[in-house]
Write a structure and sequence with these properties.
5-stranded mixed sheet, 3 domains, N-(1-d-carboxylethyl)-l-norvaline Dehydrogenase, domain 2, alpha/beta, Rossmann fold
């Protein structure tokens, strides 16, 4: 709802359009409300036990033909699907890129149990939202974070070892590769705790030392400097 207010203030939406959008949104705290849903997307924090509990309950509460999608950025889809007893083949990931209203990309990830029909429905659903799907296998980091997080981690290592100052690191990537945001600023917007969690998954699940999280990244998280959401990360907010 805050996004709608922001869009109105920036003239991206009229007040009438925002009101019409609000009228199409219904909120509830009762999981039984999914009983007539065709497509369900879970977007709780990256806590494996919480996601598995939700999917176990969704398998019972949702219609037998409903697609059960997770917005996870790092947790194994296969392990989440295993918790959805009786509905494993209908579990898939729809990983939306942030900020969702702006970014077109959505990563579609199949678990071992995901049926071809479920995958096809997920891709069609995302296209109907005028997003652009990219299909990935269920491997550590999937596509987006398998590529993005080592890039961010290496930038943090460059800062840690004194190769460059934060502005120099971000500026060379913005002005040298035409990305809208440098890696350290992007890490602040994602959340340094989230970046660290994903790097740990990559490191632990692959056993490859190239995914070892930067020592400085760990220190910032230990200090509670998590980025924009905490008011301080590599930059101050």
């Amino acid at each position: 709802m805050r996004l709608l207010e922001k869009d109105v203030s920036k003239s991206r939406l009229t007040s009438e359009q925002a009101t019409a959008i609000r009228a199409r949104i219904t909120t509830t705290q009762n999981l039984s409300a999914v009983s007539d849903a065709d497509f369900i997307i879970e977007a709780v924090p990256e806590i494996p036990s919480l996601k598995k509990d939700i999917f176990s309950r969704l398998a019972e509460a949702a219609p037998k033909n409903a697609v059960l999608a997770t917005n996870t950025s790092s947790i194994s889809i296969t392990s989440i699907a295993a918790a959805a007893h009786g509905a494993q083949e209908r579990v898939v990931a729809t990983h939306f890129m942030n900020p969702v209203p702006v970014q077109k990309g959505v990563e579609i990830i199949s678990g071992l149990q995901t049926s071809p029909e479920t995958l096809e429905r997920a891709v069609s659903f995302v296209k109907a939202m005028e997003k652009i799907p990219s299909v990935s296998k269920d491997t550590p980091g999937f596509l987006a974070n398998r590529i993005l997080m080592p890039y961010i981690n290496e930038a943090v290592t460059c800062l840690e070892t004194g190769v460059g100052e934060r502005e120099d690191i971000d500026n060379i990537m913005k002005n040298g590769t035409n990305v809208p945001m440098g890696p350290l600023q992007l890490a602040d917007f994602i959340g340094l705790d989230t970046c660290l969690a994903i790097m740990k998954v990559l490191h632990e699940d692959t056993g490859d030392s190239k995914y070892r999280p930067s020592v400085l990244l760990k220190k910032y998280v230990d200090a509670g400097w998590l980025g924009k959401k905490s008011g301080r990360g590599f930059y101050e907010y």
